[in-house]
Each structure stands twice: as structure tokens, then as C-alpha cells.
Write a structure and sequence with these properties.
The protein is mainly alpha-helical and 149 residues long. The chain has helices at residues 26-55, 72-95, 98-117, 123-142. 63% of the residues lie in helices and 0% in strands. It is elongated, with a radius of gyration of 23 Å. The N and C termini lie far apart (55 Å).
Length: 149
């Protein structure tokens, strides 16, 4: 058995294969495209939740004495505004705008918190939206592909 020898001083060492950290994995790149579509869907769902909440307080069954006790109409406006903005950000992500990824992470985080607080009114719908938001945040944070200019 031969043992590897140390390189002599002044000689160059063989380099390890270069890994391109600027290029993300195909999963993350495809995930970003899917996150753009999910942002559009999440925005549309937010608009629907908002319109239903604004229409009347009787659309959703309210839970009395819950820690986050708010007027359903106020929550409707919050979801409507977030939904419209998420639609625009989703469109920006599909267009490849760098600003949309950064703004998307921030707005989806706010949407996640809003849906967590919305849990007593529509638990299943809020949990589904939270799961979508977690995937969107993951996809936008892990994609390192070059943005389209």
C-alpha cells in the first residue's frame, strides 16, 4: 500500500471539484415557480376570506372568549388587503423579480401569523393556508438561482 505524500513546498495542490453555490438545487428552483403559483392561489383565497368576512359576521362561527377576540369584519379587511398584495407578489415571482422574493417572504410570514390568529374562526382553512405559507417561505429562502433581469 502506498501512502499519499504531502506536496512539496512551492507546488500547487490539486483542487477539489468546484461546487457552484450560486446555483440552487432543481427542487428549490422548481419550488420557487410553484411558490409563485401558490402565492397567487393564497392571495385569491385571502380575497375570498376577506370578502366573506366583510359581508357579515354570520358567515363564520365566532368562538366566544378566545384569546384573540376581534371583529370578523376587521379580519375580513386584513385578509382582503393581504390577499390582493399576495396576488401582485406572486405575479412578480412568476416574472422573476428579485424584489418579489424578498417581499414575498415578509408578506407570507405576515399571512402565516394572520392565519394562525384566524384559527378559531375557520380551523381547517387556516391550517391549509399555514401549510401553504410554510412551503412558500421554504421555497423562496432556498432558491439561489440567478434572478431574471
Amino acid at each position: 500500500m502506498s501512502q499519499p505524500t504531502a506536496p512539496t513546498p512551492g507546488s500547487s495542490r490539486p483542487t477539489a471539484p468546484a461546487t457552484d453555490d450560486a446555483v440552487g438545487t432543481p427542487w428549490a428552483g422548481g419550488g420557487t415557480l410553484f411558490a409563485g403559483f401558490l402565492l397567487l392561489v393564497d392571495g385569491v383565497l385571502g380575497v375570498i376570506k376577506g370578502v366573506a368576512g366583510i359581508a357579515t359576521n354570520d358567515v363564520y362561527a365566532t368562538v366566544n372568549d378566545y384569546v384573540f377576540k376581534f371583529n370578523v369584519t376587521a379580519w375580513g379587511w386584513i385578509h382582503l388587503i393581504l390577499g390582493v398584495v399576495l396576488i401582485f407578489v406572486g405575479w412578480g415571482i412568476l416574472k422573476g423579480a428579485t424584489w418579489a422574493r424578498v417581499v414575498g417572504i415578509a408578506l407570507v410570514s405576515l399571512n402565516l401569523i394572520a392565519n394562525f390568529m384566524w384559527l378559531p374562526y375557520t380551523p381547517i382553512w387556516a391550517i391549509v393556508t399555514i401549510a401553504i405559507d410554510v412551503f412558500i417561505i421554504w421555497a423562496l429562502c432556498t432558491d439561489r438561482s440567478e434572478p431574471v433581469v
